[in-house]
Amino acid sequence: EPRQVRSYIEEQVHAKQKLMGFGHRVYKVKDPRATILQTLCERLFKECGSSPLYEVAVEVERVAEELLKGKGIYPNVDFYSGIVYDKMGIETDLFTPLFAIARVSGWLAHWLEQLRENKLFRPDQIYSGEHNRPYVPIEQR
Is 24 a catalytic residue? Predict the structure, then answer.
């Protein structure tokens, strides 16, 4: 229930426990993918009816943002993807395989690059792609 969120989050923060669905190794701001999924959630629950899970999630984000202010810990893509999958009626046992399937092409691309260049890739490498590309809103993609 949303009213129980604050005490739970306070306990987790006080015990220095991780909040599942929060934080990212690279992003020290809110994960842009989470922002996109959050917008999708808002639309989905507005059009298809709310759910207790979504109401709790909104409160979790609000309370966590308040209590973790300045620590660079924000919702990640997993926080909202699980809520969307649940609303779509997807079994929780399939969440991890879906998460993996969405990343297979990227993993394979990295693997092929590693085979070709024989070096490990890290998030802090220098970007060598095209710069100043125009942003295309999702609705126009």
Answer: yes
